[in-house]
Amino acid sequence: MKILQRYFAINITQAVAFVLVAFLALTAFMDLVQELPSVGKGTYMIQHAFLYVLLQVPGHVYEVMPVAALIGTIYTMAQFAQSSEFTIMRASSMSTRMAAGMLFKTGVVFVAITFLFGEVITPRTAPLAERLRLAAKGGTVSAEFRSGMWTKDIVHAEGVKGPTIGSRFFNVRQIQPDGKLVDIRLYEFDLNMRMRSLITAATGTFSGNNTWQLANVSETRFDNSRELPEPGAPLPPGTTIQSSFGLDTASVSTRHLDTLDLQSEITPKILSVSRSDPDRMSANELAVYTRHLAENRQETERFKIAFWKKLIDPLAIFVLMLLALPFAYLHTRSGGVSLKIFIGIMIGVSFILINALVSHIGLLSTWPAFLTAIAPSLLFMALTVGALWWVERH
């Protein structure tokens, strides 16, 4: 059986590798076509476009590997059926369970490769590709909103520790490719959501230890911790009084600083993932950002679904490879290899569409994230069991 296992693994791996390369070449070509209109803008030349497309390839490996494993396995099983090799294997006491076990052992390699690209390589190459593209164009990262990118932070009594004393809304108009923040606005509120501080800064640089160094800072504080001064009494320098704030705010003070060290739970990593496509983020990044959103009482369902899909989608390779096993039982009169490959492509496309459809329906219907992520795999697992039952009976 070791020889048979090796024979299965070699043939399936060769077929899957061929299909994978074909899919990657197709997706890379489509990415390059999309980049061509940008060539010539700024210093963005054709070599930058080729490098950008090349850095995007690892992300496509994660996306197309399940379909490549399905089509490659179907091709191998169809070849075995056409040459009657599978019939000889069955006559030599190989059961369906044994064949499924061989496919499972071969699939372990594909699952490991998929996790490697999804969790290690893509989270590094995708941001690098975007920084390269922006640097060549001389541009900056910005959000879809005109006002820039927004995120929420918790204000603690002692830096990032101690009891919670309020919340902070973090607004950045632009993020340069090197991670430098441009045109920053910080809105701080107390526990009763009364505004207590407005900080604006021209730039911000992360210096480590949850500390941002802001430059050219203007800070306006709305204070209600003291009584209004007596009429005619001198005011502290730089302080103005606006009694229209009533009981909520007794005084408004403004100061200007060259630099200001701000301690915040917001880090460059959180900013990078907040503007990233969840499908290009690692499970660890999704877990960190989901926890950050939960602590700030923000919507987390989209990222929870993406997190569970990161863990479950590679395991769907096992399901799709088992779904290819019934094709080995079909005789040549049931259709040639090309027809079976076409059916495999249709099954793979169906899996991608159903996976995306269930994700959107689960998000809209607030289904549990784990159930939303695993539902397509369970559906195709049921289809696999039904197909194996049918070929066994016929």
Automatic annotation (TrEMBL):
It is a multi-pass membrane protein. Keywords: Cell membrane, Membrane, Transmembrane, Transmembrane helix. The keyword Phosphoprotein does not apply. Its main location: membrane. It holds the Pfam family LptF_LptG. The chain crosses the membrane at residues 7-29, 49-78, 99-118, 311-330, 342-363, 369-391. It is found in: Cell membrane. This is LPS export ABC transporter permease LptG. It comes from Massilia agilis.
